[in-house]
Write a structure and sequence with these properties.
Keywords: Methyltransferase, Transferase. By secondary structure, this protein is α/β, with parallel strands linked by helices. The protein is built from 17 helices and 9 strands.
Length: about 350
């Protein structure tokens, strides 16, 4: 954390570490997207020519990338100029089954860098940056949620909801609001064919991708809709869903309270709402020890807050926190709110609410 590091090492030393780390994230993003980490993990000691050939890439660029990775302590080099990715690093940087691919998260730095000029303009003039300015954000979010949410859905997240597996197996109606590319829905739809699943999102590109993927998988119990949820408190169909989910979707809405009121409106009496959102308090002074504090406040400033403000919205930001979340959920009519943490997930809180009769 910057506050601690500057006191311990001197701010100039901390800054050198920070700027090197920022540069490494760009190179790690490239290594992830190009498949270089996956190829390198399957090789023993190798040179840039062999690595480039096996990865189908330009050798000169691969050689310079290896320079950044090696001076940054990610890869190793020997006296003959051959490189390797240590196994203890590979488990966190590759797509290997059973691993935790942290390299995917490095993409946020590059994606947000693309809108720096637009965000700077907002610093001077207010307003926000619309969704269409972030061409890869949904793709990166889908990869992020694929690891933190989708992979944990069956074993960790759904068990937070009493009797949900029995209900899904018997057949219920499920809505995921702000579904993005719909990966969580696809997993549930495939596992529980007797239930009916519906996804809504404002992004045409995300919904188009979801529809094509669902059709390819022949998930006939799954449908998607392009929808702005700003008026959901008035337009939501009353009392039709048995289970509603939102995954990291409420805080960047134009009108989060309207969304939450709409969710309660569309639930049947006794039905359950599961909200996954960023773990934080509503006070910076209480977030100083958050392990992802700087990253999450940056994502909030350069995306979550800004896309809401671009719609003339509330601009809550990703770090709206438990206190604000409880306040809005209570205003929306939820009076039975429980908050859970999962051992594998340092980033999120999981809210469970049952609609009273």
């Amino acid at each position: 954390m910057p506050q601690t590091a500057s006191k311990e090492t001197g701010f100039d030393e901390w800054f050198v570490t920070a700027i090197n780390s920022g540069a490494l994230m760009l190179m790690i993003s490239i290594g992830h997207r190009s498949g270089l980490f996956d190829v390198l993990a399957d090789l023993e000691w190798t040179d840039s020519r062999v690595l480039a050939e096996k990865a189908g890439l330009n050798e000169r660029y691969v050689r310079e990338w290896l320079g950044a990775m090696t001076t940054g302590g990610v890869t190793e080099v020997n006296e003959t100029g051959e490189y390797r990715l240590p196994p203890q690093h590979a488990q966190f940087l590759t797509r290997k089954e059973g691993g935790e691919n942290l390299a995917a998260f490095a993409q946020y730095i590059a994606v947000l860098g693309n809108v720096e000029d637009d965000i700077l303009e907002c610093f001077y003039n207010g307003g926000g940056v619309p969704y269409e300015k972030y061409p890869r954000f949904h793709e990166v979010m889908a990869e992020d949620s694929g690891m933190t949410v989708v992979d944990a859905l069956e074993d960790h997240i759904l068990p937070l909801v009493p009797d949900i597996f029995t209900k899904l197996a018997d057949g219920i109606r499920v809505l995921d609001l702000g579904c993005g590319r719909g990966k969580a829905l696809m997993k549930m739809a495939a596992e529980f064919p007797n239930s009916d699943f519906h996804g809504m999102d404002i992004s045409e590109k995300a919904i188009q991708w979801a529809r094509e993927e669902a059709a390819q998988r022949k998930l006939d119990n799954l449908s998607f809709e392009i929808r702005d949820a700003s008026l959901f408190d008035r337009t939501a169909e009353p009392g039709v869903y048995d289970f509603v989910t939102t995954f990291d979707a409420v805080h960047d809405q134009a009108d989060p309270l309207a969304v939450l009121k709409g969710i309660r409106r569309t639930l049947k009496p006794g039905a359950v709402y599961l909200m996954q959102d960023i773990h934080s308090t509503s006070h910076v002074s209480s977030d100083l020890d958050h392990p992802l504090g700087p990253l999450l406040y940056t994502i909030s400033c350069m995306h979550c807050m800004s896309v809401s403000l671009a719609q003339g919205g509330a601009g809550l930001g990703a770090m709206w926190g438990r206190e604000k979340a409880r306040e809005l959920l209570t205003k929306a009519g939820f009076d039975d709110i429980s908050i859970h943490r999962l051992d594998h997930d340092i980033q999120n809180d999981y809210y469970i609410m049952t609609k009273s009769a």
